[in-house]
Amino acid sequence: MTETLHIVGGGMAGSEAAWQAARLGIPVVIHEMRPRVGTFAHRTGNLAEMVCSNSFRSDDDEQNAVGLLHWEMRAAGGLIMETADCHRLPAGGALAVDRDPFSEAVTARLRDHPLISVTDEEVTELPSSGHWIVATGPLTSSALGAAIAAETGAEALAFFDAIAPIVHAETIDMSVAWRQSRYDKGETEEERTAYINCPMTKADYEAFIDALLAADKTEFREGETAGYFDGCLPIEVMAERGRETLRHGPMKPIGLTNVHRPEEKAYAVVQLRRDNALGSLYNIVGFQTKMKYGAQAQVFRMIPGLKDAAFARLGGIHRNTFLNSPTLLDGQLRLRSRPNVRFAGQITGVEGYVESAASGLLAGRLAAFEILGRALSAPPPTTATGALVTHVTGGAEAKTFQPMNVNFGLFPPLEDARGGRRGRRERYKGYTDRAKEDWQGWLTAQDAPALV
């Protein structure tokens, strides 16, 4: 009788790991403590709940490493990408989804699979036997976190992850704002008008920065330090780095033309992206924040077009823990001191929904093949998944290890024949061409048993 794979955590990584293992014929139990034990950020007990953004970022598989990761997961029959494609929303060149139907669909697919069961018990210790994947994400329970710290002999590193606010669309003043994707990107009119844009003059921007810097912020408890991940910085932290930082980041005005005043170039632009299929909710892009709730409403209503905005959800901040994976995990994502336990997702130091799901996909396959008594090597570092996992399990410098998004800087240099390409577009195309060929080769070489 085939041994069971136990997965702790039903987020992006845990859900994808369960799907991959079950399709290879392995019985799976997902241990998800929600809704019995809640977290600061989650609202439901659904699997693969999207907590922060509703975007899987770029879907360009020829010029973007994230889009390439999408491609690899689709090629491997990934549940997260398949479900995202079914619930996608217009977002220019990005893959954004209607978050609640998305997580509900993932939950239904997993619960309906004959080899997968889900329990809401909280796991508080690292098991000493059996096959396990820990994919508890950034909000690992305190008890399990303490057990991991005790096992690894080191304190878990920590940073603080901030959540962006969501606005009711009907309260946005469209006589001020307009619909347009940056550079009119997208194949359809719906895609080309996927974002709502709120323009700022120089005076608007300066007043907004002043208010942002002066606003009441969330205080940290004694002993906590605010080591933010640069890809998810609160806007106040960005503003503290320089008054022009936001204008060259999430508020950059390039590629946008105000339809109400086409002759005037906005000094800065705040973008909102559709958050549900009905188009009734929009999230403020890049506006993760640690401001207190009262201050948020006051400051965000200074944005032209949002004077009378009603918020479906205000922003927030929570602690995010991750392992020093280069010292603790082997190339199979196993804990060196306890190899019956694998780790996957954000707790390993990969950052983002996409990266977490890809990490789970790999962990699920590695664990399944081990249970089946067959060897499976990690994918080559020339692939997006392989490059990311190689970085996490040894490619990164342990002393300065920080959460990492997938990017072409993690890939080995192109071979001589392709290394001579001139220009970034050709170089990136070289990376993605090579990755696709090598990923397909990795999948084919597995000679996997019939998928179920």
Automatic annotation (TrEMBL):
Main location, first listed in the record: cytoplasm
Compartments reported by the entry: Cytoplasm
Gene Ontology biological-process annotations: tRNA methylation; tRNA wobble uridine modification
Keyword tags: Cytoplasm, FAD, Flavoprotein, Methyltransferase, NAD, NADP, Transferase, tRNA processing
Binding site residues for FAD: 9-14
InterPro entries: FAD/NAD-bd_sf, MnmG-rel, MnmG_N, TrmFO
Organism: Wenxinia marina DSM 24838
Top-level class of the enzyme under EC nomenclature: transferase
Entry function: Catalyzes the folate-dependent formation of 5-methyl-uridine at position 54 (M-5-U54) in all tRNAs.
Family per similarity comment: Belongs to the MnmG family. TrmFO subfamily.
EC number: 2.1.1.74
GO cellular component terms given for this protein: cytosol
Protein's recorded name: Methylenetetrahydrofolate--tRNA-(uracil-5-)-methyltransferase TrmFO
Keyword Methyltransferase in record: yes
